[in-house]
């Protein structure tokens, strides 16, 4: 009997905690909903500025706590998630009347969606918290986070930085909150709570599926596994510089990082020697079996959690590879093809890249599709070429929501510096990735838009003709 009561208490505790968080969030929602654009913009600016100034401290915390990634790259991520995201949304009108077209008689009014639940990943801890919180408060929505337990300390400190800055700038208490004792039960209770209006989930496929199973609007993202094609007309120097920059960034933990590379036969040897010169280590055929077993979990057909975000040298050591330099940028596994029969074709979330030779453009397109179909549908593909006709063909044939041309995919997919894609750390994958959006998450996705339609002074003429 006592044991049963203890079990009931353990079950009830997460629910009680979530109930309290949601209750406080609704009080904050009442206050946020009456604020004007100027007040909201002041708060968002204060949050972004505070986060920017804490970017280095939080980057170090993330590396120390999770044991993954690269400090300098996490600093850049935090800068992007504060300064860059702020600059991309600062002029957006998200409060009250946002447009009023006298000619059409259509007025648009923005309202908050309500209290948001947000699940965040271990791979991008503080940066995801910054990003989602800025978008939430910009749209007058309180947000309650469920942090990944392996990054709880870092995320809590991130939450404190922005919550304190928000309140100091005039925001209500508890506009940014989080689950203090992380557990799957608490996260599930939060996402399914009646007081939660929508869920923003960034993480593994299981977490995203849970978000979409709540019966309420959800914004989740699909897995990556990005294939990239280096075609013979490409500017090879620029292409290799981009790929090395992208693949080595934060030890390959961005989901948009190049995973499988297809290279035209005519330039294969040049590309290979160029990658070696830039610090890539090519795994020898004799080491390939041990390497594959180290990197991948064959039962789950996914990356070994121990490997994700680790250095190329550490992964090589675990694989029994003794001649890999300590400063190797990433590891390259040459393969005969891509697809389910090649275990390393799956998403690797680490500084591991496969490389496959294409005998023709048609062969390359076939290989790209096989790679994309292996867990990356809807996410991102990359192409390095100077052939405009190929760009068009590529765009029409690839089932991906971000088609990046002559761009490092890690940076290009999130809208960092290289293109005009909406800056974001939550990348929608459309119906291909079983997501509700096919674009990068932005503030508009967290608004209810009311449409006011005024009667026309003269009724539209009805015609019987088509």
UniProtKB/TrEMBL annotation:
Coiled-coil segments: none
Molecular function, one GO term: oxidoreductase activity, acting on the aldehyde or oxo group of donors, NAD or NADP as acceptor
Domain (Aldehyde dehydrogenase) ranges: 15-411
Pfam families: Aldedh
InterPro entries according to UniProt: Ald_DH/histidinol_DH (IPR016161), Ald_DH_C (IPR016163), Ald_DH_N (IPR016162), Aldehyde_DH_dom (IPR015590)
Assigned keywords, A-Z: Oxidoreductase
CDD domains (UniProt xref): ALDH_F20_ACDH
Name of the protein this chain belongs to: Acetaldehyde dehydrogenase
Taxonomic source organism: Pediococcus ethanolidurans
